[in-house]
Amino acid sequence: MAEFPHRGSYPGELLDLGIREYREVLFKPYRIIYRVIEETVYVLVIADGRRDMQSLIQRRLLSASSYARQAVLTR
Questions:
Q1: What is the DSSP letter of 36?
Q2: Tens digit of each residue's pLDDT (9 = 90 or more) over 32-56
Q3: Cis peptide before 11 (omega within 30 of 0)
Q4: Residue 72, pLDDT above cutoff 50
Q5: Beta bridge mates, 43
Q6: How far apart are the first and last CA of the chain?
Q7: In this structure, are residues 23 and 6 in contact, taking their beta carbons and an 8 Å threshold?
Q8: By mean pLDDT, which of 17-21, 28-32, 55-59, 68-72 is the weakest?
Q9: CB atoms near residue 33 (< 10 Å)
Q10: Virtual CA dihedral for 18, 67, 22, 5, nearest 10 degrees?
């Protein structure tokens, strides 16, 4: 990830929603979901891929994204 951060694939759960700002790498059974901003890699989720990833992603990533957007809009 450090050398080629954009090499990871888009998480299917987010790609279905048209969201392409996150990437993932797999180290079975784990999924690492991260985001690249400028030259920095932010790891957001390290989870067992056998979990219900749809609800995990909705709770952790989508709610955090909407909170961050609201914070920017209220400034």
A1: E
A2: 999 999 989 999 889 888 888 888 8
A3: no
A4: no
A5: 34
A6: 33
A7: yes
A8: 68-72
A9: 24
A10: 150
Q: What single letter denotes the amino acid at residue 46?
A: I
Helix/strand/coil for 51: coil
In whole angstroms, give the CA distance from residue 73 to residue 36.
22
Q: Residue 43, by phi and psi: left (phi above 0), alpha (psi -120 to 50) or beta?
A: beta
3-state helix, strand, coil in the chain (%, to 5): 35, 30, 30
What CA–CA distance (Å, rounded) separates 32 from 20?
Answer: 15
Rounded Cα gap, residues 47 and 25, in angstroms: 11
Rg (CA), the chain: 13
Q: For tokens 């050398």, name the residue.
A: 3
φ/ψ bin of 38: left (φ > 0), alpha (ψ from -120 to 50), beta (otherwise): left
